[in-house]
User: Fold this.
Amino acid sequence: MGKPRNREKSKRRKPIDPQKLAKRRQVWKLRSVFSRIGFAHIPSNGIEFTFNGRTGELDEIFQQDNVIVICECTIGKAVTEHVTKKSILFGKILSEPSAWVKEYSAFNPRFKASVSNSGYNLTEFRVRIVYVSTEGVSDEVEKHFENIRFLDGTRLRYFELLSHTIHRSARHEFFKYLKLDHSEIGDQIHSVKDSARKFSGHLLPEAHSGYPSGFKVVSFYADPAALLALSYVLRQDSWRDADGLYQRILIKGKIGKMRKYLVEKKRVFVNNIIVTLPGDTLLLDPATRKSIDAVKLHQTEQVSIIIPYSANMIGLVDGQHRVFCYYEGKDPLEREIASLRTRQNLLVTGLVFPEGWSPNRKREFEARLFLEINDNQARARSALKQSIELILNRYSTTAIAKDITNRLALKGPLADLLQISFFDPSNKIKTTSIVSYGLRPLLKFDGADSLFSTWAHRYKRRLTINATAAVERSSLREAYIEYCISCINDFLIAAKLGTGADRWKLEPRKANQFLTPTVLNGFFVCLRRLAESSKLTTRGNYERALHGIDKFPFSKYKSSGWKALGDDLYEKFF
Assistant:
């Protein structure tokens, strides 16, 4: 006879609460990112303290040198009330960081030991608050609480991918995200030197460059360590602006192979790296230390190049992998790579922006230059071209369609369902074909089957004319976008109500997902038929017309069958 079963052991484990599980994953991901970029985690949860009359607890604390980051973590969309409540304590901490470091040390022994062993005095600590939420907050909330950095799921995934690829070297961009200047970080806070980096190189006469007036072209050798600290790849605020993410994300496998090449072959890459340099870059005569005017040059001259030392000063247009394969890592190759990182052995061609150029103008120039270099080598992907189109030609139908897609993803029946950034979750609906085949034909400037034909604006044709005054044309563009979004959302809300709101949720398995690019493009084809037949109407009328749409056989339309789907929806319901 066998032993009696232990009833306690035989009991099934209680299922973990989904909210708690999501919170665990969020915290684990956050700690992993901080660890990879060089921060130490200091336990703080459950430690209650009072500072300047306000009592509270801190979810997570991380420290690197003199930088202390306090993180508040929440699942879902951060509500204004919660942010407001927390901001009172955070505001008190940020207004007197030195006093808080001293007083909080009495409550948290691990924190006290960490700051005491760091070697920095109280006035040298830099404290930042990061509010971490899976879905983020509105732009309005972010602007209201400017002293708090908001890290939503997309931004966290960006830093997760970046830190997985270039490890500790990702800290330079993260410090920029925290709004920390290079002079405030680590040993630099003790330094009285000017925060700038000097390179020896050559300056090309302006007449020989072929670039617009005011541009200066320089060539110089740079050490990878400096480029890692100073460069940006996607664009300056890649964690914030999805529209600017036009360059390829760093490919971990490619960087790994190049890193191995450096160690095994023991030689550098011979082709040059193309960068843009800020307008306040100084170009000085090495002997006299006076500024050199490229306009007056008739031949290439030696020059001292002085670049402000801060993250995101150098725009990497071509050669990002050749720079970032020198990253600071923990792999077996790091010991040998570390010795190569400070050697000035990378040949750089730099384009110095004319002084006074606006950020938008610089952004357009970099996008054009990137496209010129890369489109000649291999056809750029559609998603990449759409992002560049939004930068370079914002009045094209592709750019307007891309802009509308971005806005539909933020508000309305498609909110939080569309993948508009490379770093959005993979289960969100991809939008490249929606922009190209669904929205662009719907809002084109010609033909009776477009929303432009039904738009009743008196001066709408001026939107299509390049000579139209910039202010008026921009206003018309915004008005047309708002009209299109209103027409689209009226139809989509009725379709959502008719098919059932539950079917519009994202599913873990794509095979179970009702909403797909095919279904959405089918809706947009139907809207084109409605525009063509002058049957665009109100949401209420759409709801009545779409009665019974929940029984419609959407699943039989596959891949590029959106045209047939849209036509069949129109014929059956309208």
User: Anything to note?
Assistant: The longest helix spans residues 470-499. The chain is about 40% helix and 15% strand.
